[in-house]
């Protein structure tokens, strides 16, 4: 409720006042009202206004103030292109130079390479060099999301001298809650919290109070694994090292929140057989372009199902009533497979499913499929036998349900595990794919049993 009332206050008071200041060219009033807002509300206002109003905002705010806004706004590629194209190139370059290096890299990665090169050439060279160092890391790795604005100290200095360094470097550091200890070769040898620095005696040596059992990640580590480590250890920041264990950057919790959102969105997209989540402002052509390849693949898989039914055309002609149970059996198999898929993909994503627990997962899902299959099979057998006054038809449909649920549950858990083993994103084993594959399996089981039962059905 508190969040809702705050948002209402912003919408009802701040936004109209800011728009009025823009439309009347009242720069002083705009700056007073705008800079008093929380950074999130600033970003929300900027995203909501028209392009003509945004162009005035660029005139009213300094590149440093716009940099802070950009650090708090979730930008899609199309938005980045629009906003940056509205700015004067020098203004945009100064804005990037004033952003934390990792945030600047996130935005620049959404631009064309020639645009990035142009901005780096007119940017302050120190800032450009720092950004270039981060741009060369492979996307979705620890190196690509880390920041180089951290504070490091030496083990052979006192708390007094460390506090002096902390005070002098804090304004440009992204976080000061952890201070990292390095040796003369810049190798990471320890970490100390701000709290420990504050409560320690000024003459205490850093080596005596630092924590030397350090948890760190390599620059090449996958960002999803980094996010899992941050969650497991409840860190606010995580040091990043190279192959020589030299400290090269840190990853902060705000970047990990963005990673978790990105990974969740990516997995959900794949589970829905969409390469990327559709944005509300995406054109119908763009949305169709992203969805069509998956639908075409599923179309061909569906044609395989139709062809399989065609193989049993003679069986259907002799016992036409079999056709009415096809959607029931295929649907139940699809539902069961999707449930098992969700459990397996979640287990892989959270790290719960490791090499030693794969067999345990398969055995559990096999048992679950068997129990649910027998239960649903018995229920359907009784209902169909009474409905059509035919025990053999009831046994056929019940046995088909039992077999389909058992196999579909195994497939739903087994397919993503195989993909994960071969370094393929298990979310690619999406719901539509599992459903279509299980359609094939369930139809084969159903009509295979029907052929065996044919004499009794006739």
Automatic annotation (TrEMBL):
Family: Belongs to the SLC41A transporter family.
The keyword Metal-binding belongs to this UniProt entry's keyword annotation: yes
Location (main, coarse): membrane
Known role: Acts as a magnesium transporter.
Assembly: Homodimer.
CBS domain mapped to chain residues: 146-209, 210-268
TM region positions: 292-312, 318-345, 366-387, 393-419
Cross-referenced InterPro entries: CBS_dom, CBS_dom_sf, Mg_transptr_MgtE_intracell_dom, MgtE_N_sf, MgtE_transporter, SLC41_membr_dom, SLC41_membr_dom_sf
Keyword Transmembrane attributed: yes
Subcellular compartments: Cell membrane; Membrane
Topology of this chain in the membrane: Multi-pass membrane protein
Protein name (database record): Magnesium transporter MgtE
Gene3D superfamilies: CBS-domain, MgtE N-terminal domain-like, SLC41 divalent cation transporters, integral membrane domain
Keywords: CBS domain, Cell membrane, Magnesium, Membrane, Metal-binding, Transmembrane, Transmembrane helix, Transport
SUPFAM superfamilies linked to this entry: CBS-domain pair, MgtE membrane domain-like, MgtE N-terminal domain-like
Pfam families: CBS, MgtE, MgtE_N
Source superkingdom: Bacteria
């Amino acid at each position: 409720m508190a969040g809702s009332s705050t948002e209402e206050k912003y919408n009802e008071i701040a936004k109209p006042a800011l728009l009025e200041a823009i439309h009347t060219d009242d720069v002083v009033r705009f700056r007073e009202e705008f800079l008093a807002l929380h950074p999130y509300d600033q970003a929300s206002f900027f995203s909501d206004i028209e392009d003509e109003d945004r162009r005035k905002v660029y005139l009213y705010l300094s590149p440093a103030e716009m940099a802070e806004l950009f650090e708090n706004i979730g930008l899609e590629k199309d938005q980045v292109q629009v906003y940056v194209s509205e700015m004067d190139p020098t203004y945009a370059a100064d804005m990037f130079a004033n952003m934390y290096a990792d945030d600047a890299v996130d935005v620049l990665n959404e631009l064309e390479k020639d645009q990035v090169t142009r901005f780096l050439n007119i940017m302050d060279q120190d800032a450009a060099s720092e950004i270039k160092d981060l741009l060369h890391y492979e996307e979705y790795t620890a190196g690509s999301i880390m920041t180089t604005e951290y504070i490091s100290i030496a083990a052979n200095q006192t708390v007094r001298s460390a506090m002096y360094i902390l005070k002098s470097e804090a304004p440009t550091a992204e976080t000061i809650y952890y201070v990292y200890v390095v040796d003369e070769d810049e190798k990471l040898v320890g970490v100390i919290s701000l709290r420990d620095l504050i409560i320690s005696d000024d003459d205490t040596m850093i080596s005596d109070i630092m924590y030397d059992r350090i948890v760190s990640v390599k620059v090449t580590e996958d960002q999803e694994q980094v996010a899992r480590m941050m969650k497991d250890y409840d860190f606010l920041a995580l040091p990043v090292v190279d192959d020589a264990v030299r400290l090269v950057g840190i990853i902060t919790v705000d970047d990990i929140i963005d990673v978790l959102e990105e990974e969740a969105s990516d997995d959900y997209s794949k589970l829905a057989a969409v390469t990327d989540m559709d944005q509300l402002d995406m054109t119908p052509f763009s949305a169709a372009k992203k969805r069509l390849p998956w639908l075409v693949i599923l179309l061909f898989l569906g044609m395989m199902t139709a062809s399989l039914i065609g193989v049993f055309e003679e069986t259907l002609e002799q016992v036409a009533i079999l056709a009415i149970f096809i959607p029931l059996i295929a649907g139940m198999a699809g539902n069961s497979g999707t449930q098992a898929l969700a459990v397996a993909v979640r287990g892989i994503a959270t790290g719960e499913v490791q090499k030693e627990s794969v067999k345990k997962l398969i055995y559990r899902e096999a048992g679950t499929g068997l129990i649910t299959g027998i239960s649903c099979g018995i229920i359907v057998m009784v209902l169909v036998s009474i409905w059509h006054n035919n025990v053999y038809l009831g046994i056929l449909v019940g046995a088909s349900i039992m077999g389909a649920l058992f196999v579909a549950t195994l497939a739903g858990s087994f397919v993503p595990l195989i993909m994960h083993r071969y370094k393929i994103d298990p979310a690619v084993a999406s719901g539509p794919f599992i459903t279509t594959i299980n359609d094939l399996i369930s139809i084969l089981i159903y009509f295979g049993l029907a052929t065996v039962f044919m004499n009794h059905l006739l």
